[in-house]
Amino acid sequence: MKKIATLAALLILIATSARAGGIYQYSTIDALLAGRYDGDLSMEQLLKRGGFGLGTLNGLDGELVVLDGKAYHVQAGGEVVTAEPSDRTPFATVTTFEEDSIASLDAVSDLDSLNKAMLDRLVSENFFHAVRIEGRFEMIKTRAIPAQTKPYRPLVEAMKDQVIVKFTGLEGTLVGLWTPGFMKGVNVPGFHWHFISDDGTRGGHVLDVSFDKLVARIDVEREFSMTLPEFLGGVDLSPDRSEALHKVEKDPAE
Q: Which CATH number fits domain 2-249: 3.30.1330.80, 3.90.780.10, 3.40.190.80, 3.40.50.720?
């Protein structure tokens, strides 16, 4: 399809200057929204591209958290197991985290407050940023989706199966990525957060969070590379899926 070819050409140009440590992405968020849940990239291969990031696993089986070179599989219900090297992903974004700056954060009452506070700390909204926030979280609400069965439904429908859990007084790490708005359709524009507890047993995609005072470590990324899986050749990427993405990212309790 013409749009896929144009996107591929653009991303190839972007990738030509990619360094180790830049943002690496497998597939697109729009393909995931369309129900393409089976990729060919293994955890072993993904971790060679970066040790910090997020995504999901084949079959839309829960959430993926990548931290300190390890891949964690968050299952529906918030329980975590270490992903197997052979486990595969249909969508993931990783980098080699290299701290460029730190920012002290005052008390945060909810996810919107965190996003607003971090927005002020960005070097530019046109650059990618990886953000790592460690410490004690007064409250953190996460979700994960149980593995889907074929024929796969679009993501906005699969979200109806999500399992939401709420933790209090939990020590852990927020793994965050900021994606520029011009990457709409490729990744989630704005902030995207996943969480993993210090003991590696609880986590998920973050729907809400609160904490007292913590420090954000920030990695500014101006280089991007991407693998376009073969299955993209059969996906219609022309529709605007912004509304579906908003429904997927939003806390259903709001």
A: 3.30.1330.80
* C-alpha to C-alpha distances, 193 to 11, 40, 157, 167, 204, nearest whole angstrom: 24, 24, 21, 15, 9
Task: Say whether 36 sits in a helix, a strand or coil.
Answer: coil
SS3 13: helix
What is the rounded distance in angstroms from the CA atom of residue 15 to the CA atom of residue 223? 7
Specify burial of residue 193 (Cβ count, 10 A radius: 0-12, 13-18, 19+). Answer: buried
Closest CA to 74 of 60, 85, 86: 60
Please name the residues in contact with 141: beta carbons below 8 A apart, sequence gap of 6 or more: 164, 165, 166, 167, 206, 207, 208, 209, 251
Burial class (CB in 10 A: 0-12, 13-18, 19+), 112: exposed
pTM: 0.91
User: What is the three-class DSSP state of 2?
Assistant: helix
- Can you give the residue ranges of every domain in the chain? 2-249
Residue-level pLDDT, tens digit, the chain, 254 residues: 444 444 444 444 444 333 456 999 999 999 999 999 999 999 999 999 999 999 999 999 999 999 999 999 999 999 999 999 999 999 999 999 999 999 999 999 999 999 999 999 999 999 999 999 999 999 999 999 999 999 999 999 999 999 999 999 999 999 999 999 999 999 999 999 999 999 999 999 999 999 999 999 999 999 999 999 999 999 999 999 999 999 999 888 77
Let me know: does 214 contact 134? Beta carbons within 8 Å.
yes
Rounded CA separation 201/79 (Å): 6
